[in-house]
Amino acid sequence: MAVKPLVTAPNPILNREVKDVVNFDESIKQLIADLEDTMFDNDGIGIAAPQIGVDLKVALVDMEQDGILQLINPTILTQSEKTETDVEGCLSVPGVYGEVERSVMITVKSKDLNGNDVELTAYDDIARIILHEIDHLYGELFTDKMTREVSEEELEEMYKDE
């Protein structure tokens, strides 16, 4: 378990699809521990393996009181037609924030640490974070989907009452 250095844009690993996990062994548990340590050390709410330079489809989402969601080889099964636009940022694109439109409800199929299929439905903020992290596994950054960049001043204004 260790905090790993973050990979930031424009690094080629962030712009290509990474490989499926095929071996569900101790190395995956180690990778998940490293991702978790790195995410928390950088005050993140989600992180994907390419963000620490690892060429595998593994991502984590901090679901706060519900713990850490581990996504291994995740695929989106369904997405709601209803969408919402909200501001996103990314550990791999420091200092950039922008509005991104995403589905408010998704169903995801993933693997657990033992390689078993797991299916889950997520809503609102959690759905947004999962979609953001899955995008990383396919070489897409939120900046590729951003409809408008938001300045740090605008961001502070938006969240000053929270």
TrEMBL record:
Gene3D superfamilies: Peptide deformylase (3.90.45.10)
SUPFAM superfamilies associated with the record: Peptide deformylase
Keyword Mitochondrion assigned: no
Top-level EC class as recorded in UniProt: hydrolase
Catalytic activity as recorded in UniProt: N-terminal N-formyl-L-methionyl-[peptide] + H2O = N-terminal L-methionyl-[peptide] + formate
Pfam family, one: Pep_deformylase
Keywords: Hydrolase, Iron, Metal-binding, Protein biosynthesis
Superkingdom as given in the UniProt entry: Bacteria
Residues forming the catalytic site: 133
Cofactor: binding details: Binds 1 Fe(2+) ion.
GO molecular function, one term: peptide deformylase activity
Cited InterPro entries: Peptide_deformylase (IPR023635), Peptide_deformylase_sf (IPR036821)
Cofactor(s), names only, from the UniProt record: Fe(2+)
Documented EC number(s): 3.5.1.88
Amino-acid positions noted as binding Fe cation in the UniProt annotation, renumbered to this chain: 90, 132, 136
The family this protein is said to belong to: Belongs to the polypeptide deformylase family.
Function of the molecule: Removes the formyl group from the N-terminal Met of newly synthesized proteins. Requires at least a dipeptide for an efficient rate of reaction. N-terminal L-methionine is a prerequisite for activity but the enzyme has broad specificity at other positions.
Protein's name in the database: Peptide deformylase
Protein's organism: Mammaliicoccus lentus (Staphylococcus lentus)
